[in-house]
C-alpha cells in the first residue's frame, strides 16, 4: 500500500440523511489531508435539512451532498467502513476490498421531536458527538 495515499473511509447509516452525512463532512473538514470520506445508506432517502443547518453553523457546507446507496460505490475499495447506527450495523453487507469494519453508534437526530429549536438542538448535539469521536479516532 502506498504510504502517501489517503485512507478511504465510508460512513454508513440507514437513510444516509444525517449521521453518516455529518461524519463525512466532518472527517473531510477535520482530517481531509489524511482521509477521503464518503457516506452511504442501506436505504437511502435524502439529506435532512437539520443536518445541513447544523453543519453550516460550524462552517461546513453539505448542501451539495446527496443520499446514496452502497451500490453507488460498486466495487470501490475502502480502508474502513464505519456504521453509525444500529440498523446499519445489522444490515450492512460486507463491502468488498474493506480492510476494517467498525461500529460507532450515534442517536438519530432525525427522530427528535418537539419544536424546530428542539430538533435542531438534537442535530447539534449529535454533530458535536461525531466531531469529538472523529478527533479522537482519526
Mind explaining what this structure looks like?
It is a single chain. By secondary structure, this protein is α/β, with parallel strands linked by helices. The protein contains four helices and four strands. It has one domain: 3-Layer(aba) Sandwich (Rossmann fold). β1 (7-13), α1 (19-31) and β2 form a beta-alpha-beta unit. α1 crosses α4 and α2 crosses α4 (116-137). The longest helix has 22 residues, at 116-137.
Give me the CATH fold name.
Rossmann fold
Shape: globular
CATH architecture: 3-Layer(aba) Sandwich
| Overall pLDDT confidence | 92
Q: Spans of 5+ residues with little confidence (pLDDT < 50)?
A: none
- Estimate what percentage of residues fall within beta strands: 15-25%
According to DSSP, the number of beta strands is 4
Return the CATH class.
Answer: Alpha Beta
In N-to-C order, the SSE pattern is: EHEHEHEH
| Cα separation of the termini | 19 Å
Q: Roughly what percent helix?
A: 25-40%
Largest beta sheet: what is the strand line-up? 2-1-3-4
Note the total helix count: 4
Biggest sheet, in brief? 4 strands, parallel
Provide the structure class.
alpha/beta
Number of domains: 1
Q: Topology of this structure?
A:
Elements: E1 7-13, H1 19-31, E2 35-41, H2 49-56, E3 80-83, H3 86-91, E4 100-103, H4 116-137
Parallel strand pairs: 1-2, 1-3, 3-4
Helix pairs in contact: 1-4, 2-4
